[in-house]
């Protein structure tokens, strides 16, 4: 079950042909995207996702996204969807055809959430740490690297997940050249120590997390302390709990890191998952 809506406001056949072969999103990954979780017809964090789409587009010097058109496009998918109560809503915005008139390509697609993701939400995951190959200090010096933009250039991220799966793990966590913690290929890293939650700052070159932000808001209401600050590998292994946060993943616990079991965080995971869900109750 899939639903495809183009940015011009028309539904399209998801099995049909809609992209030109010279679209720069296809040819060069020259575009941006967002993935929004939809539960019972309600998109979670749609505003922050559209804000992030605009920030990413600005970093790539793409035309400013037409927010009203994107909201109409999203509504068309939501009103047409008849699949499971949860879906992943992909928003894709590219520079358009290489030899076109400069008009960007934009579309939204509703997709079912994979069984593996749903299973891992409950069971937790094994993760490996992988070098990402840059120093966080380069972020401000080299904006052309697009660190912190959610671009379509996800080949490295997917390669990292394949590497993890080939080495008896389901997930990966990137480390910077200085050994500091960055993010997962498709997630933010959150650690819990006592009643404190911590995550890596966007200034390190990571993506601002919409799900992580929702969790922190809910936790603060319940008296937790939240911190956005640099993390080290020791912070991950010594924490009461290590978690990955993303739209479709929600809050997923990491029970094994680099082949070594972490402290049992099952009860803590249940508490954090409930906090996250309370943001939408």
UniProtKB/TrEMBL annotation:
UniProt KW Lyase keyword: yes
Signal peptide bounds: none
Keywords: Lyase
Organism domain of life: Bacteria
A GO BP annotation: carboxylic acid biosynthetic process
Protein species of origin: Actinophytocola xanthii
A single GO cellular-component term on record: cytosol
Protein's recorded name: 4-amino-4-deoxychorismate lyase
Keyword Lipid biosynthesis found: no
GO MF assignments: lyase activity
Sequence similarity: Belongs to the class-IV pyridoxal-phosphate-dependent aminotransferase family.
